[in-house]
Write a structure and sequence with these properties.
The structure is a single chain. By secondary structure, the chain is of the alpha/beta class. Helix content is about 70%, strand content about 5%. Strand 1 and strand 2 form a beta hairpin. The two termini are about 30 Å apart.
C-alpha cells in the first residue's frame, strides 16, 4: 500500500492542507521545525486508517472534535486506487472523497489487511525512543535471536524479560516445594488456622463465671503473700545488718591472721612471685606438651604396626595398570569379533560373485589367474596409452586443420605497416600522470564550486528576506541574536499595549455611541426639560420682567412666564425621563473624556512601537534588506550564519582551484607537445586533451600490438602446421606400436586374443574392485585372528597375575579379575602413601619433642637462678603460690575494712566487736535461715500466681475481643476462595509464559534465516561496509545468539557493539522484517520519526540509503533537522521527495 496523498482537512492546527507523495520517490522526507505540525501529521496516519478514538482525540484544539476530518488517496501493488475521507463519529465514518457518500466499513481491508492500530503503530512506526529501547533490549537479552527477531518484527520490547517475570510471579504463588513466601501456602495456612479458630472460638456463661471467680481468688492470694513478704523483709534486714557487722569482724581478723602467717617471706617482693609463677607455668605446659607428644608418638608407632601393605601387589602395579588399559581393547575385541566374522563372510560372497562375472567357476580359479598389480598396472597403462594415442591423434588432426584454416585467414588479412612505437610517448605521458590528477581535481572542484555556489545563492535567495549578495555579506553586519530577542520582546510588548488601547477605545466609542443613541431617542420623544433649559427660560422671564417695569408692556412677559412654568411643569410630570436624560449626559461627558485620554495613551504607545520598530530595523542598517518579524529574523540570522560557514568552505575550494589552475597551465604545454606528436586536436581543454592523448596512445598501442601480433600469428601458424604434420606422423606410428603392445599383453593377463579395447576396459573395471575385496578378506581374517589372540592373551595374563597375587579371584572372568586387582592396587597404594606420611609425621614429632625438652631445661635453669637470690631459709618450691596468697590476703583485708567502714555508720571496730559479743550468733543464723527459706517459698508462690494471672488475662482478652466462630468460618471461606483464585492465576501465568516462549521459538525457527540474511545486507549498508553481515551461533544454554561479522571474519557479539552500532543493528532487523512482511502481504507504509537524532552525519547518510533501499515498501521520514534534508538530497538526489511543513 502506498499513500499518494494525505489531506489534513480539519485536524490539529491544519485546515485544508494537502500533502502529496511523489509515486516514484524511494524516500519521502517530511521536514518541519518544532511546532510545525509533524506530530499531528504522524498521528493522522493512524486516525485515518483506523478511525478516531471515541474520547481524548488529542488534536481538537483548533477544530471541534465532531468536525475533525482527514482524507487520502491510496494505491496497492496491483494498481488499485482509493480516494476516501475519514470523519469523527461512531458509524459510517468512511466517506467517498468525491461524493462524500458513506463507504462500507471494510473498504480498507484490501489495503491494510488484518492490521489494527496497535500493530500498525508498533510494527510500522519507529521513533528514536523505540530504536534506543530495542537496542538496549538486545544487550539485556545477550543477543538471543528468537527474542531479537520477535521484538524487531512486532515492535514489542521486553518479551524475554516478560516471560521471566511471568515465571517468577508464578513461582511466587506456588511451587512443589512448600515455602512461607509463596502466597498459595500463605492462604493454605490461613485456612488451617481459621478452621482451628472456628473450633476454639466458642464461649458459654459457666466458663466466663469460672474465669471471674479464679481472678478474685488470685488477687486475694497475692495480697496475703505480699503482706507476709513485707514483714519478713523487715526482720531479715535487721538480722542481716547485725550479721554483716559480726561477719566483717571475723573476716578482718581472719585476713589479719592470714597475712601474719607469711612473716618468713616478708622480705620477698611480689614481683619475684609473678616471675616465678610465669616460669612454673611455662615449665608445666612444656611438661604437658612433652607427655602429649610422647603419647602421639606411641599412637603413630601403633598405627604403623597395624598398617598392612601388600608390597608384592604394589610391585606388579604396572602390570595391573597395563591390563586395565588393555581391558578396553579386550572388551572391544569381544564385541567386534562376531561382527568381523560376518563381514568376512560378506566379502567372500562378493569375491565369488566377481569370479562368476569374470568367467571363473570358483574363487580359487580367480585367485590363480588373477594378474598381479604389476601386470594390471602395465595392462592398464597399455590400454590408457592406446586410448591416449587415439585421442592425441584425433586432436593433432583437428589442430592441424585449425592451423591451416588460421593461416589461410591471416593471409587474407593485411596488417598495418610503418607504425610508430608508442613506448617513448607513453613514457612521457606516464611521467605526467601524477600531475594529471590535478586536472581531474580542478574539474571536480569546478563542478563542486558551481554546485555549492548555486546552492548557496539558492538558499540565500530562498531566505525571507532574501540575501542578494551572500558573497560580500560580512558576518559583523549581522545583528546580535540577544539584541534581536530584546527587540522582539519590546515590539511584542508595544503591540500588546497598542491592542489593549485599541480595545479600550473601541469599548469607549461603543459606549458613547450607545449613550448618544439614548439621548437622541429622548429628544425624539419631545423636548426634555433639562435644568439648563428651565434656568434659561427663567432668565428670559426675569429680563422681560425688568423690561416690563420699564416699558409697561405685558404681552411678551406673560408668554415668557407661561414658557418657564410649562418647562417646570413638564419637568415635574416627566421626572424619570429627565433624570435618565441627565444621567446619560453625565456618562457621555465622562466617556468623551476617557476617550480623549485613551487617544492620547494610544498615541504614546504608538510612538513607543514606532521607536521599537525603528530600533529593530536599525539593527539591520548595515544590510540591504527589509527585516521581517523578529521571530522569523532570529531563525533567518541562524540560517545566514550557516550560509556564511558554507561560504567559507566555498572560498577554500576556490583557493584550492586557483592553485590547481596555475599548475595545470604549465601542464598544458607538455600535453600540447604530446598531442602534436600524436596528431590529435591541441585545441581541447587540458582535461579533455589529457584524456584524448591517453586514448590516442591506447589506440596507437593497440594498433602497434595488433600489427606485431598479426605478423607473429602468421609465423606461429606456419610453424604450428609444420609441427602438426610432424606430430601427426609420430602419433600414427605410436598408435600402431601401442596397438601391437595391447595385442601382445592380452595373453599375459588371461584375456582372449579377440578382446578389444572396450572389453579390456570392462575387465579393468572388474579387476579394480578385486584387490580391495581380497585385501578386505585378508584384513578381516587377520583381525578375526588378532581379536582371538588378544582375547586369549588378555585372559591368560589376567589369570597368571591373579594366581600370583590374588588366588581368591582367579576363577572370575578376566575383566573382573583386572578390575578387582586395580581396586586392590589402588587401596594398597593409598596405604603405602599413608605409611610414608606416618613415617614423616613421626620424624617431625621426634624433632619437636627434642626442642620441647631443651626448652624445659632452660626454664629450670632460670628458676634455679631465682632460688639463689632468695633469703636464707626460704624454699623456692611453692613460693610463688604463697606470695600470691599473701597479696590476696592483704587485698581481702583492705576490702573488708572498707566495707565495714561503709556500713558501720561511723562506729569503730572495737565498739562493734563489743556489741557483737552480746548477741547469740547461732540463734541469729538459724532465724535468718528460716526466714530466707520462707522467702524462697513465697517467691515461688508469687511467680506461680503471676503466671496464673497472666494466663487468665490472656483468656479473658481472647474471649472479650476475639472473633466468634462466625468470623472464623468467614476467614476459612475467604482463605478457600483466595486459594482457588491463586490457583487460577498460577495456571494463567504458566500458560502465558509457555505461549510467549513458544511464540518466540516458532518465529525464530520459521523466519530466522531469510530475515537474518536481509538484516545482514541492511546492516552492511547502515555501517557503510564496516561490517560484512550477521551470523548466528549457539551460546549459553544452547540459545542461538547473534553476532556481527567484520572484514576478515571476526565476529562480535551484541554486547561487544557500541551503542550507536546496536541502534543500527536493531534498525537493520526492523527493516529486514518489514521487507519480509512486504514480500508476503500488502504492507503499510513505514513511518519513521526522527530516528537519526543521535546519529552523526555519516551514519545518518547510511540510514537514509538503507531506508531508500527497502523493496516494495513506502518509507516516510519525519524530521525537524534541516541537516537531514541536506543529507537526503545529497545521498539520493532526485530519488528523494522533500515535503516541507511550515508553521
Amino acid at each position: 500500500m502506498r499513500f499518494l496523498s494525505l489531506d489534513l482537512i480539519r485536524y490539529g492546527h491544519f485546515t485544508d492542507r494537502s500533502i502529496t507523495f511523489r509515486p516514484d520517490a524511494a524516500l519521502h522526507v517530511v521536514y518541519g521545525p518544532n511546532e510545525a505540525g509533524k506530530s499531528s501529521a504522524l498521528a493522522a496516519f493512524s486516525d485515518l486508517l483506523f478511525g478516531f478514538p471515541d474520547r481524548n482525540v488529542g488534536y481538537d484544539f483548533l477544530h471541534p472534535a465532531r468536525d475533525l476530518r482527514l482524507g487520502a488517496r491510496l494505491r496497492t501493488h496491483g494498481g488499485t486506487e482509493l480516494a476516501f475521507r475519514r470523519r469523527k463519529g461512531r458509524s459510517n465514518t468512511l466517506l467517498d472523497a468525491a461524493s462524500e457518500t458513506a463507504l462500507n466499513d471494510d473498504a480498507l481491508s484490501g489495503f491494510i489487511g488484518g492490521l489494527d492500530r496497535t500493530v500498525f503503530e508498533r510494527a510500522f512506526g519507529l521513533d528514536s525512543l523505540r530504536l534506543r529501547a530495542g537496542a538496549d533490549e538486545m544487550l539485556a537479552d545477550g543477543g538471543e535471536i528468537g527474542q531479537m527477531l520477535f521484538s524487531a518484527a512486532s515492535g514489542l520490547t521486553g518479551l524475554r524479560a516478560a516471560s521471566e517475570a511471568l515465571a517468577a510471579e508464578a513461582d511466587g504463588i506456588y511451587a512443589p516445594r512448600r515455602s512461607q513466601t509463596r502466597s498459595f501456602y500463605q492462604a493454605l495456612d490461613r485456612h488451617d488456622e481459621a478452621r482451628r479458630a472456628e473450633r476454639d472460638s466458642q464461649l458459654n456463661a459457666s466458663d466466663w463465671t469460672a474465669l471471674l471467680k479464679e481472678e478474685r481468688e488470685i488477687g486475694q492470694e497475692f495480697a496475703v503473700v505480699e503482706e507476709r513478704q513485707l514483714q519478713r523483709a523487715r526482720r531479715i534486714g535487721e538480722l542481716e545488718r547485725l550479721q554483716r557487722l559480726r561477719g566483717l569482724l571475723g573476716e578482718i581478723d581472719e585476713h589479719s591472721a592470714a597475712v601474719a602467717a607469711f612473716g618468713d617471706i616478708e622480705a620477698v617482693d611480689d614481683s619475684v612471685g609473678e616471675a616465678l609463677a610465669a616460669l612454673e607455668d611455662r615449665h608445666a605446659r612444656l611438661a604437658e606438651q612433652i607427655e602429649e607428644k610422647k603419647a602421639r608418638q606411641a599412637v603413630g608407632e601403633r598405627e604403623l604396626e597395624a598398617l598392612e601393605v601388600d608390597d608384592a601387589l604394589l610391585a606388579r602395579r604396572a602390570e595391573i595398570a597395563r591390563l586395565q588399559r588393555e581391558s578396553g581393547l579386550y572388551e572391544q575385541a569381544l564385541e567386534s569379533l562376531p561382527r568381523r566374522r560376518h563381514e568376512l563372510r560378506d566379502v567372500e560372497s562378493r569375491l565369488r560373485n566377481a569370479a562368476v562375472q569374470l568367467g571363473f567357476d570358483s574363487l580359487n580359479a580367480l585367485e590363480k589367474t588373477f594378474p598381479n598389480s604389476i601386470l594390471r598396472s602395465e595392462f592398464q597403462a597399455i590400454v590408457e596409452q592406446l586410448k591416449e594415442h587415439g585421442r592425441a591423434r584425433r586432436a593433432a588432426e583437428g589442430a592441424l586443420s585449425e592451423n591451416r584454416e588460421t593461416l589461410a585467414r591471416l593471409e587474407q588479412q593485411h596488417g598495418e605497416s610503418h607504425l610508430r612505437d608508442p613506448a617513448p610517448l607513453r613514457k612521457s605521458y606516464e611521467a605526467l600522470r601524477d600531475d594529471l590528477a590535478g586536472i581531474k581535481e580542478a574539474e571536480t572542484l569546478e563542478t563542486e564550486i558551481v554546485g555549492k555556489e548555486r546552492m548557496l545563492f539558492e538558499q540565500a535567495a530562498g531566505l525571507r528576506p532574501a540575501v542578494t549578495d551572500i558573497l560580500s555579506l560580512r558576518g559583523g553586519d549581522l545583528p546580535d541574536e540577544a539584541a534581536l530577542k530584546t527587540a522582539r520582546d519590546e515590539i511584542a510588548s508595544a503591540k500588546s499595549m497598542l491592542a489593549d488601547c485599541d480595545s479600550a477605545l473601541a469599548k469607549t466609542d461603543e459606549e458613547c455611541a450607545r449613550l448618544e443613541a439614548l439621548l437622541a431617542e429622548d429628544r425624539r420623544a419631545g423636548p426634555v426639560p433639562t435644568r439648563a433649559a428651565i434656568d434659561a427660560a427663567r432668565a428670559q422671564r426675569d429680563v422681560l420682567f425688568e423690561t416690563l417695569s420699564e416699558e409697561r408692556g405685558t404681552g411678551a412677559y406673560a408668554d415668557a412666564v407661561r414658557a418657564a412654568d410649562r418647562l417646570a411643569d413638564n419637568a415635574l410630570d416627566d421626572a424619570e425621563r429627565v433624570a435618565r436624560h441627565a444621567d446619560n449626559l453625565r456618562r457621555l461627558e465622562r466617556g468623551t473624556a476617557e476617550r480623549q485620554h485613551g487617544v492620547e495613551k494610544r498615541e504614546a504607545v504608538l510612538l513607543a512601537l514606532e521607536k521599537a520598530q525603528a530600533d529593530y530595523e536599525a539593527l539591520f542598517s548595515g544590510l540591504d534588506i527589509v527585516p521581517a518579524a523578529p521571530e522569523a529574523m532570529i531563525e533567518w540570522r541562524r540560517r545566514v550564519e550557516a550560509l556564511l560557514e558554507a561560504r567559507t568552505a566555498l572560498l577554500s575550494l576556490k583557493d584550492r582551484k586557483a592553485v590547481l589552475d596555475r599548475n595545470n597551465a604549465a601542464l598544458g604545454d607538455a600535453l600540447v607537445k604530446l598531442a602534436e606528436n600524436l596528431g590529435t586536436d591541441v585545441s581541447l581543454p587540458p582535461g579533455a586533451l589529457a584524456r584524448d592523448i591517453n586514448a590516442a596512445l591506447d589506440r596507437l598501442g593497440e594498433r602497434w600490438a595488433a600489427a606485431r601480433e598479426h605478423a607473429g600469428a602468421m609465423n606461429a601458424a606456419r610453424q604450428a602446421i609444420e609441427k602438426g604434420q610432424e606430430q601427426l606422423s609420430f602419433l600414427l606410428a605410436e598408435e600402431e606400436r601401442a596397438a601391437a603392445r595391447f595385442a601382445a599383453s592380452l595373453a599375459g593377463v588371461g584375456l582372449p586374443e579377440e578382446t578389444g579395447l572396450a572389453g579390456a576396459q570392462a575387465a579393468l573395471a572388474l579387476w579394480a574392485d578385486l584387490p580391495s575385496h581380497l585385501a578386505a578378506r585378508t584384513r578381516l581374517s587377520q583381525e578375526v585372528e588378532a581379536d582371538g589372540a588378544r582375547i586369549a592373551a588378555f585372559e591368560a595374563d589376567a589369570l597368571q597375575l591373579a594366581e600370583a597375587v590374588a588366588m581368591d579371584i582367579a576363577g572370575e572372568p578376566a575383566s573382573r579379575i583386572v578390575k578387582h586387582l586395580a581396586e586392590r592396587a589402588a587401596d594398597h597404594g593409598e596405604r603405602a602413601v599413608k605409611r610414608t606420611t606416618l613415617n614423616e609425621s613421626a620424624e617431625r614429632l621426634r624433632l619437636d619433642l627434642e626442642a620441647d625438652m631443651l626448652e624445659r631445661e632452660r626454664v629450670g635453669s632460670r628458676m634455679a637462678a631465682i632460688a639463689a637470690t632468695l633469703p636464707e631459709g626460704v624454699a623456692v618450691d611453692g613460693l610463688s603460690a604463697r606470695l600470691q596468697q599473701r597479696a590476696a590476703s592483704r587485698q581481702a583485708m583492705a576490702e573488708a575494712q572498707n566495707r565495714f567502714s561503709g556500713i558501720s555508720d561511723g562506729a569503730s571496730v572495737e565498739d562493734i566487736r563489743a556489741l557483737a559479743e552480746t548477741l547469740d550468733e547461732v540463734d541469729c543464723r538459724q532465724e535468718l535461715a528460716h526466714l530466707k527459706a520462707d522467702a524462697g517459698e513465697d517467691a515461688a508462690e508469687i511467680e506461680a500466681l503471676r503466671e496464673r494471672r497472666m494466663a487468665l488475662r490472656h483468656r479473658k482478652q481472647a474471649l472479650e475481643t476475639g472473633p466468634g466462630s462466625e468470623a472464623a468460618a468467614f476467614d476459612r471461606a475467604s482463605a478457600e476462595a483466595e486459594a482457588q483464585a491463586l490457583a487460577r492465576q498460577w495456571v494463567v501465568l504458566k500458560l502465558a509464559g509457555r505461549l510467549l516462549d513458544g511464540a518466540l521459538e516458532r518465529y525464530r525457527e520459521s523466519r530466522a534465516d531469510p530475515i537474518l540474511a536481509a538484516a545482514g545486507r541492511h546492516f552492511r549498508t547502515l555501517t557503510r561496509a564496516s561490517y560484512d553481515g550477521l551470523s548466528q551461533a549457539y551460546g549459553e544454554h544452547d540459545a542461538l545468539v547473534l553476532s556481527a561479522v567484520r572484514h576478515g571474519g571476526d565476529e562480535i557479539r551484541v554486547e561487544g557493539l557500541s551503542d550507536g552500532t546496536r541502534d543500527q543493528l536493531y534498525l537493520a532487523l526492523r527493516l529486514a522484517f518489514l521487507e519480509d512482511y512486504a514480500s508476503r502481504n500488502e504492507p503499510a507504509p513505514l513511518i519513521v520519526d526522527d530516528i537519526f537524532q543521535t546519529f552523526d552525519d555519516a551514519r545518518s547518510a547510511a540510514g537514509v540509503n538503507a531506508l531508500a533501499g527497502l523493496e516494495g515498501l513506502q518509507t516516510i521520514l519525519f524530521t525537524h533537522e534541516a541537516s537531514m534534508v541536506d543529507i537526503a538530497r545529497t545521498e539520493l538526489g532526485d530519488a528523494v521527495d522533500i515535503i516541507s511543513l511550515e508553521r
